[in-house]
Amino acid sequence: MKKLLYGVAYYDEYMPHERLEEDIRMMKEAGINVVRIAESTWSTHEPQNGVFDFSSVDRVLDAMHQAGIHVIVGTPTYAVPTWMVKEHPNVLAETAKGQGRYGARQIMDITNPTYLFYAERIIRKLIGRVSNHPAVIGYQTDNETKHYDTAGSNVQLQFVKYMRETYTTLDNLNKELGLDYWSNRINSWEDFPSVVGTINGSLGAEFAKFQRKLVTEFLAWQAAIVNEYKRPGQFVTQNFDFEWRGYSYGVQPSVDHFAASAAFDIAGVDIYHPSQDELTGIEISLGGDMTRSLKRSNYLVIETQAQAFPNWTPYPGQLRLQAFSHLASGANMVAYWHWHSIHNSFETYWKGLLSHDFKPNPVYNEAKTIGRDFDRLSNQLIDLRKNNRVAIMVSNEALTALEWFKLPGGKTYNDVVRWMYDELYKMNIECDFIHPSYARLEDYELIVVPALYAVTDEALVRLNAFALNGGHVIYSFKSGFASEAIKVRTTDQPGIIHEACGITYRMFVEPKNVGLKGDLFREGEAADSVHSWMELITPTTAEVLAHYDHPQWGDYAAVTQNRYGKGTATYIGCMTSSTVMNTILKAAVQEAGLWGIDQELAFPVIVKSGMNREDQAVRYYFNYSDKPVSLTYPHVSGQELLEERLIKSGEQLLIEPWGVRIIVE
Amino acid sequence: MKKLLYGVAYYDEYMPHERLEEDIRMMKEAGINVVRIAESTWSTHEPQNGVFDFSSVDRVLDAMHQAGIHVIVGTPTYAVPTWMVKEHPNVLAETAKGQGRYGARQIMDITNPTYLFYAERIIRKLIGRVSNHPAVIGYQTDNETKHYDTAGSNVQLQFVKYMRETYTTLDNLNKELGLDYWSNRINSWEDFPSVVGTINGSLGAEFAKFQRKLVTEFLAWQAAIVNEYKRPGQFVTQNFDFEWRGYSYGVQPSVDHFAASAAFDIAGVDIYHPSQDELTGIEISLGGDMTRSLKRSNYLVIETQAQAFPNWTPYPGQLRLQAFSHLASGANMVAYWHWHSIHNSFETYWKGLLSHDFKPNPVYNEAKTIGRDFDRLSNQLIDLRKNNRVAIMVSNEALTALEWFKLPGGKTYNDVVRWMYDELYKMNIECDFIHPSYARLEDYELIVVPALYAVTDEALVRLNAFALNGGHVIYSFKSGFASEAIKVRTTDQPGIIHEACGITYRMFVEPKNVGLKGDLFREGEAADSVHSWMELITPTTAEVLAHYDHPQWGDYAAVTQNRYGKGTATYIGCMTSSTVMNTILKAAVQEAGLWGIDQELAFPVIVKSGMNREDQAVRYYFNYSDKPVSLTYPHVSGQELLEERLIKSGEQLLIEPWGVRIIVE
Amino acid sequence: MKKLLYGVAYYDEYMPHERLEEDIRMMKEAGINVVRIAESTWSTHEPQNGVFDFSSVDRVLDAMHQAGIHVIVGTPTYAVPTWMVKEHPNVLAETAKGQGRYGARQIMDITNPTYLFYAERIIRKLIGRVSNHPAVIGYQTDNETKHYDTAGSNVQLQFVKYMRETYTTLDNLNKELGLDYWSNRINSWEDFPSVVGTINGSLGAEFAKFQRKLVTEFLAWQAAIVNEYKRPGQFVTQNFDFEWRGYSYGVQPSVDHFAASAAFDIAGVDIYHPSQDELTGIEISLGGDMTRSLKRSNYLVIETQAQAFPNWTPYPGQLRLQAFSHLASGANMVAYWHWHSIHNSFETYWKGLLSHDFKPNPVYNEAKTIGRDFDRLSNQLIDLRKNNRVAIMVSNEALTALEWFKLPGGKTYNDVVRWMYDELYKMNIECDFIHPSYARLEDYELIVVPALYAVTDEALVRLNAFALNGGHVIYSFKSGFASEAIKVRTTDQPGIIHEACGITYRMFVEPKNVGLKGDLFREGEAADSVHSWMELITPTTAEVLAHYDHPQWGDYAAVTQNRYGKGTATYIGCMTSSTVMNTILKAAVQEAGLWGIDQELAFPVIVKSGMNREDQAVRYYFNYSDKPVSLTYPHVSGQELLEERLIKSGEQLLIEPWGVRIIVE
């Protein structure tokens, strides 16, 4: 990447009247230097089977090039045209809810050969036409691709073959998945029942894993086609996204980002988040850390919000704060979905930089300041490198397993991830994300492991070795409980890691009116703080950091820490309030020797840092609040880039509400 | 109509044992002078295909006639018999939920030719048989007719043709409906997808409009058949009803009452409402105003509640209060659903005048007093004429549009209508309802326009002209936002009416902890009063009546008023508490010069008035509370009809809890 | 039964590794003397169509016999194998929701001949093989059998024939079910519509009754097959269960326990209940009373909880308390579901005596003390006989009727049953359950009748006669309202029993802010205590125990008592708080002369008693609280069996939290 990209999604096809020239004029004024086009408009580009019309692509490319604006071209495959569904209704995914209906995007069976035939043809037509255009800097395959719950008989057939490859014999399959239970045993491959009705979580989770594999394969297939046309200097990316709870919340359940990102040159991502009084920056940081970890490199924010929803319209200053927050996590591009607000259909109220009237407005006006600063500071801020000492271990497999075996009260895997991540964020501990299969654990000092419920023996053995050799690990409850096939381990619990943790438990209960007691906590801090889950822990060699505060379960340990070889393993046997989690994490971070001067600051003051291309330390200070904050600048003197002045070590730094400072040493 | 009608629905077919003579004796005692029969009993009248048995109709007609009770005969077409469904299962409507199942009423495809064939046959047999009977004064076609979400392939086919007629070309269709979005574009009429899965609100709303058209056509078809048999003096009506929220709430989403009522001689209606401590009279007034506005004439209350549900059993006095409230809105008939409580099936707990034991009970006993008074006062109270100066503009199109583009927090179009109507009611401002296509706006001084979201340019231009020429208009938020095809206007907002309103806005947010500030409000009155929606308004020429009270949005206007030509346009950019709405409306009513002596009274004292056949002013005073109220009678002296005494101007008028007085000048 | 049975469900088939010897060793240590095997493992025992493998049954039988542990063998028919569904998909029940899907247990059509053919074959193979094995003491047919909502065309056809047998003529059918309403009339048997869409509660309730009959017939069919193999001394039982609300709540809606139990030698049952702070013993008592009443004899608790769910893990002492509570209600067996916690699939978190690690744990350790005591005290505690003077009359028919005609606010039939039963339990009044068809009402002094909504004339006439002859009856609201076909009675209400009750009502309302007033209540006790339902009662000859406390309904009676012949009939016209119910019941119990010394004690001190095989009075005293309780022992001196010491009359008896004492006179 040569410079920071500041962009928008642009849909010439959706315009109610001719706007191209005026739009480009306004984009230039706002410093927009890249647009993404063409995804989601298949029916415009191929109005009838085999009839192509790329005139809107051509004219946008030419006009953008003339204006010096780069273009990322998306393959239009995630929304199928009406003619295709009318000709071949079975391109729609059959799911557990039955045959699909035309209407929305993302409703097809991504393994259907008819769909794949047409998809390949339009990709080749489009990419072949545009790849030599000088405006084009890269490609996005499809968009927010998932498996759309495809589960028809063709998918089932492939799944049975996949299961035979995975488990080899039916005896092995029946045993690992526990299929004797409720007479689910399969004694001949021909008897393999459709999995849509299964009540066996092991089987259901294997199917979910298989469905994620379909996504990986589909994306690799698209990337390979696009690669045939890609010119030197161009990139291919995918727009990944996260578990959606009205905003980007956590690990994406339907896609294995680690696996699927392998086919791409650079990782791209959607990040959407609460705003106004609810803006914290957590999702920007979380999404950035997750995406940066995919290829362990910088990434593109392909979509984030401009005005968006009525409840997200940013307060003055917030759009700037958000933009620089993305850079501080390692993004090389920040692009809005989308340029103009759409006048019909589903996302009319998901507003772009411009409102429906196309006139300048306060948000657009703020974007202009961002565009100027991105341009001015590009060389100093691009390609930020991190050297994080802390990693969080996450897995789709654990997530799926906890969907089948839910926590009482409704908390999910991503809630556990967020419970731990959010407190690290608030104490300004930056981190990477790793999968349990990650081999080089020694890259880190501290590994945080939320609810690693379903996992191989190997991964747990590797974590034990990591601690033995001097690493520090923090486990939450439920970790190690079951095999990768979600068979509960028959050993002492927590499975395998009980060795490093120096504890065991045989019983677990749902907490009601339970607090914690222990030296770690101030008077009253941990009262009534336990919810969702509690394991009744007996230490073998571990030190007890907290016992349960409960008339019946008070003798059991809740939080323990064990010295194991040269390292430590901390185990948190229950879900707690965020305050308590903060206290426990702080102690563990200090134990690992990672508590530094930036940790003395805390949310709403957020600090992010890294090294730039010139190997200068770049430090971002964010004020995530509606009050001004003041802090003593704790590092060596440096140049503040936005106000363009020297900041001396020890100088008082005042940051306005929703403000940001960037200091280069 | 020669006299006030006081009636019941009567089902001889449902009787557990012979009751006719005894029922008529008890009806006569209660002053019942009309019964409605025969709707919903097709399976009794045509027990097998082509075999007819109208014996229960004959005997009821004869017996009623002998007793001097009139009869309205309903066509029995809204509940199909078992034999028809068994012979022709596809008479049941196919909806977005799939093929229908036999069981309930109102489950057929009203466009199905098999159904229409049988329906026409039974209508001709029944009406041909009874039309010369001297007991029959009129007919009701079908009952509470709707489209029952019919959406099978035959309906889809008609819809495609309708769309071609409406939009002529696909280019026009694609553009107006924004079908390029998410690849929904239709490039050949053959590709037109089934609309049941659409995510395009413009397309979905067109289908809803088309479905309402099916209702209009079906009812006109039935009315035309019945008209062939109708004798002079007889009428044909339809029993319209309203959006149902456990009671009659607002504009009926599935029927265009304005269009559908054209085929009928007189409008009829269902009105059901909360009772006991929740009885306010609002629904009686609202339903009456809406129904009177259909043909701008008197109307029939074909169904209203007697005992009804356990939570509606009226307190002593309430049945009387309700009956006279209907008359005060212009009804010429008040009829109960129904005479006797039904002993089996779905509506066992929707009780009639009589309980299941058929014995006199407190509600029946109260009805006897109503029957006596209706009879005695018929000449003075019948055919009440209104000359309202205020109209509320409502539309099915805006309602449907706001179903597709919902307000945050769950409020709907009818909530906005009720938010405005209810306060008019409480300040004793009587009003008519008009559709945006209504041409003679100059009939009124003040037009209230709730959330007119989807509407033609012409209607908005006409409203601007109305203000220019001296009229007064009050708009709520969202008015003028989109075209009749729900394409957001690209002009300044509010679209077109921003000219008369003298304002514009480019942003809107979801209010949290937002109040209003302005001279209009007393200290604290408007704190925390804004919910659901707020537009960030900048006045151009308008006076600001209220700003938002919020740290970030406080510079924007919330409520404005603009002098425009000889009139004014008031714009309310947010949804508020009812208290605030009352304050704003009061100011606007005063501005329009419509604040009179009856407005000094307020709910729970409700005043309704009009001119009777003798051109005498008739004034109703209602006490909608459980406490006695006292008021100074503000008009010229007149005769009170219930207590039969003279009331002098300025005299103190005491009304008992749930009481009523009727004064004729 | 020769001795008390203490058992577990045992699934050798589900074991992750060879455990049999070790499991038996641990069972013996815990005093387990019976296991239940083989139900739910059809796919293991018949891995392919016609291929049988009973090796796990054989080896478990042999090993258990060698260890002196008895075995109950279940027929494996309630979970069908994969091959059967693959070969014959239509063995799955078609329900109102459509065709079934393979996955869960209990999904087949129990009338499907293919299923019945295979079921009969595996039953004969299995039972024929094991019946001569000395370990086998009895059999369980199927498990928790229900009709699984089977409603396919074959079931519908049988239902039509059943209806013709029941009602003989269509005229009679149409009249009794009120099918004229909404044109539901059936005028030819061929027109009989599928009942899945019906809105007629009478028809729907008949179908529910028919479905329950299918269960009765299916179980009798299985029992008859097993009886062919049964040796002298062996028994056949069925594992009945209750309405499930996350635990055993009340009358089972889908099975007529009274009818279905006729085919069995002894009644068996599932009882699950809240635990920890929510443990009250009510469900143990209720389930026991209901099951003991089926065959009016002792019964087997075939399943109850060991560790079970995280929110049920018992506090120390609770497992013992529960075990002896079962005996105190007349159980001769207490068995846990299940021995070991399962490592995969649906019930991984429904834990057994052992956790997944198979190690001894606190709950298992407590079981050891129970096993020892059961063994030691078997002769004194087995075959406890009751001679209860109070009965509660319950019926599936009333339950179903109240599902169709729901109480406002969501309370159901079983809520009414529990509202009355729970207070009897708390005042230590033991009772039996009887069906309205029970002929010998004179067996009792007091009959409590909750919401007997749909019932024959005969049953009500019998209840009147019971009161006339000196019995005491307590009715709740809604009793007598409708016929067995759910046709509301046209007589005065409450239908027929108004004679004995000396009251009538014609109106009923939904209470809001309603209390009671009357001499029965202490100051304020009954304020705001009425909810869900209230009938406006006028006494004819009854004494009013309470009027409603409400401004409009205050003249009506709420609770009445009438002397009728030599007895009394109490009528409660509304649903009240539990405190008020307690007060009313106490008065009625005293009136019936049933208030004794054990009634002076009250929950959390629970007393149960009976006569043992030696005709000794056995009295259980339970402390259902987490505080020690002290009471003056009120009976003649006796031997306390657990502490093995003499308790003198009048001695102070101290019971620890969750403790139990058993005293034999």
Give an overview of the whole structure.
The structure is a homotrimer of 665-residue chains. Chain A is an alpha/beta fold and 665 residues long. Chain A is built from 17 helices and 30 strands. In chain A, strands 1-2-3-6-7-10-11-12 form an 8-stranded parallel β-barrel, surrounded by 5 helices. An 8-stranded mixed beta sheet of chain A has the order 14-13-15-16-22-21-20-18, sandwiched between helices. In chain A, helix 1 (20-30) packs parallel to helix 3 and helix 14 (413-426) packs across helix 17 (578-591). The longest helix of chain A has 27 residues, at 201-227. The two termini of chain A are 23 Å apart. The mean pLDDT of chain A is 97. The interface between A and B is large, with 53 and 45 residues.
Looking at this protein, list some descriptive labels.
Beta-galactosidase (chains A, B, C); hydrolase (chains A, B, C); metal ion binding (chains A, B, C); eight-stranded parallel barrel; alpha/beta; 3 domains; GH (chains A, B, C); homotrimer; Immunoglobulin-like; TIM Barrel; eight-stranded mixed sheet; 17 helices; Rossmann fold; globular; Class_I_gatase-like (chains A, B, C); 665 residues
Number of helices of chain A: 17
- CATH structural class of the largest domain in chain A: Alpha Beta
User: What is the CA-CA span between the terminal residues of chain A?
Assistant: 23 Å
**Overall average pLDDT of chain A:** 97
Radius of gyration of chain A: 26 Å
The largest β sheet of chain A comes out as: 8 strands, parallel, barrel
